[in-house]
Amino acid sequence: MSWAPGDRIEVRLRKEDREKISYLADVVADDGDHLVVRAPWAGTTARDFGFVRFEQGDVFTEHYWRDRWYSVKEVRDAAGALKGWYCDVARPAVAREGALEVADLDLDLWVPADGGTPLRLDEDEFLDSGLTERDPAAAARAREALDELERLAADRFAAIG
């Protein structure tokens, strides 16, 4: 299943067996493998992570793949200034009627727009999740995906289009 530019879909981010968040996004492009959507910050209030603050008016251009174990989200403020890229390690995205489902695997990468060093995030949560014991192959794919994201970050994701 693929969508046309301008379609509005629901993005559902899952963590283990529960829905973490869902929101509506506008399809920018979809070639059947690589899906790009755009959505405003889905939080109801601002959230300060210490290394970046997401707030009302921020716009996320999100890249999902049906065959890659990650997503890349370009984050801009309300005036259009680039804040950086928030990357989730996740199982490949699954398209269902009117919705895109993404299963988060806890590992994340933040890449600041100012050229600063990428930050690996939530490695402790990944270890605590038990994925390494439950599904060693998926855990290995998750670690490989985080390494690949760090390589892609070296040129600020120019290779993803």
Automatic annotation (TrEMBL):
InterPro entries: DUF402, FomD-like_sf, Ntdp-like. Residues 34-154 form the DUF402 domain. Keywords: Hydrolase. Pfam families: DUF402. One of its GO terms (molecular function) is hydrolase activity. This is DUF402 domain-containing protein.
